[in-house]
Specification:
6-stranded mixed sheet; alpha/beta; Arc Repressor Mutant, subunit A; 6 strands; Rossmann fold
């Protein structure tokens, strides 16, 4: 049965950082829970990977403290399953039977740390803080990117085409010649693009376009004419 540090689940909008513990040893789960709560962290505990797979993960900065050896799905296999499901929660592995190949596999899979039991309380606390901060930054970036993507989707096909040409370094006159438009028409389109993308300057617009390009959403040339 899934255990929680609190009698009721925190809502998805909760703001406190959350540590998930997946460990089949109940005494270890409790010890870790008490340790994390002592520094103000919320905790949810599971006795196996399958239990956590059935849980809903709140949308808050979090990390996973994961035992390598578990009943059923192992910690390393669980790490792989989370990656396949596009769940990017930072993982801190712990084990009483670690070896170099095991730790290499964990770290290549993106683990924050690989701790061998018994470990110092401060070592795992440090690892958890690093993991939570990394997850917090990832979530902040994801929100910015999602907002930027939403703004980009408000652009018309022509505006996306002009944005692509602006991003390539062309001036209004060059863009007009390239598209067979009047220069004033290009200027008007650029004004609309700046407003829709929430850009305060050309440099700001180019940074936003660069971010879209990094996401594989770079504006492309089209064949339509308006």
């Amino acid at each position: 049965m899934t255990e929680r540090a609190k009698p009721s689940r925190e809502p998805a909008s909760a703001r406190e950082p959350l540590v998930f513990i997946v460990e089949d040893d109940e005494s270890m789960r409790r010890a870790l829970s008490n340790l994390f709560q002592s520094v103000g962290l919320e905790v949810e505990m599971f006795g196996s990977a399958s239990e956590m797979l059935q849980a809903r993960l709140p949308d808050v900065a979090s990390c996973l403290v994961l035992d390598v050896r578990l009943p059923g799905l192992s910690g390393l296999d669980f790490q792989a399953e989370l990656a396949k499901a596009d769940i990017h929660i930072p993982i801190i592995f712990m084990t009483g039977h670690g070896d170099i190949p095991m730790s290499v596999r964990a770290m290549k899979g993106g683990a924050i740390d690989f701790l061998t039991k018994p470990f110092r309380d401060q070592d795992i606390l440090d690892a958890v803080m690093v993991a939570i901060e990394r997850d917090r930054k990832r979530r902040e970036t994801a929100k910015i990117v999602a907002n930027l993507q939403s703004l980009f989707e408000t652009l018309t096909p022509r505006e996306r085409e002009i944005l692509a040409l602006v991003s390539s370094g062309l001036m209004n006159k060059q863009i007009a010649a390239e598209l067979g438009l009047a220069e004033i028409t290009v200027k008007i389109h650029r004004g609309h693009i700046m407003k829709k993308m929430g850009a305060k300057s050309l440099a700001d617009l180019l940074r936003r376009a660069e971010t879209l390009g990094a996401l594989g959403t770079k504006p492309q040339r089209i064949q339509t004419r308006v």
